[in-house]
Amino acid sequence: MSDESTDLPGGPEAEAAEYALGLLTPEEARAFERAMAESPDLEQDVVAWSEYFATFTDPIPEQTPPPALLRRIEKAAFGEPAPSFWRQVLPYLGGAVAAVAVAWVVITTGLLEPEGDIIVAELTPAAGDMAFDVRIDPPTHRVDVTYRAGTLPADRVLELWLIPVGAAPISLGVMDAEGVISVTLSDEMAARVPGGTLAVSDEPVGGSPTGAPTGTVQAAGVPIPG
Amino acid sequence: MTPQEEIEALIARISMGDRKAFRALYERTSAKLFGIALRVLKDEGPAEEVVQEVFLRIWDRAGSYRANGYSPMTWLITITRNASIDRLRKMRSRGEATAPVDIAERLYDDKPGPEAQTVARDEARVLQACLAELTPERAEMVSKVYMHGLTYQEIADDVGAKLNTVRTWLRRSLLELRECLSR
After folding, report:
1. Helix %, strand %, coil % for chain B, to 5?
2. Per-residue pLDDT tens digits of chain A, which is 226 residues long
3. Quick one: angle between helices B122-131 and A40-54, nearest 10?
4. A60 touches chain B (CB under 8 A)
5. Nearest C-alpha of chain B: how many angstroms from A209?
6. Residue B106 falls within a domain, yes or no?
7. Which of chain A's residues have a Cβ under 8 Å away from the Cβ of B170?
8. How many domains, in total, are found in chain B?
């Protein structure tokens, strides 16, 4: 209690009403809160006053706020919504952008694989820190993707996607627990690889329930033959 | 569940980070709370900002609701009213808001909404009955302090009296009110 209020009628009981009405100075309000912390009766008084005073708002008609307000509030409360799949892989789409955004290791390995050119590339981290090595053997249409670095989100699996130029993502399968997958593409599918993007997303156990990526893109890259 | 229990259940879910419950609470209460903020501030922009501030506070502090014993709507209304008054006082001190009672008041007079046809709840009836036992100007002062955030200084300036004189008679009135309310 402030010294001043002791000269005034009503003591703490009147001060509880003043507090509920917001009539106390900030210093008085803090002093009152300290007193209230030690006195359940005082706190009950404030609650009772608040219940009564709140009825002053009963006659006020409802006014629906503009729809944009909820969006602003949710954005402020929850943070930015997860970007769509396309926004996530956008930096990787298109050669010019990819050349800047993606660190490429493209090696023509005639020495190691006399039969043909192996395309070696890497999928670099998108959302997190996961990175993968990609090895494509054009003659056999075999694609091997192996885990190199990073942390898999808990309780999720990784799924590999091919995003052909101008088309929707096609699942190439769910990777194993070590982040490894090997697939042999059909002739038709292999024909869609050039210029396309490979991406790894995290998905619920068992893989995407919808057939399209539902999780976050963890890594992506565009394999380019050397 | 009663409407009150439903709102309490939503607040409990929000305290555990349930976004759907947060949206449900917004859809259920934002029109009432926006109405209150608009009534106090008489300006949609600041009223929207207050409602945003209120819901962010609910999102962050829903867990503290249980501790204090308020009924859920009173809790929400009190947070909204206090945030609106804080905002109004800041605007007034920067000269962005007009005097507490002005012509705009009439523009925002209550239209007979659905509430007007419903029977006033007990607390409202009791409060009005007890306010009627005060002199009309003191009863009005209490409601103006609540709805317009008048300070003792503003009341003192308005009636041309010393601050402590005003404070003394308002505290006496509040004690009379308390005496009546506890009968």
Report:
1. 75, 0, 25
2. 444 445 788 889 999 999 999 999 999 999 999 999 899 899 999 999 999 999 999 999 999 999 999 999 998 998 765 556 655 665 555 543 343 333 333 333 333 333 456 777 788 887 778 889 888 887 788 889 998 888 887 888 999 998 887 778 889 999 998 889 999 888 888 877 777 788 899 998 888 888 888 888 888 887 766 5
3. 90
4. yes
5. 22
6. no
7. 18, 23
8. 2
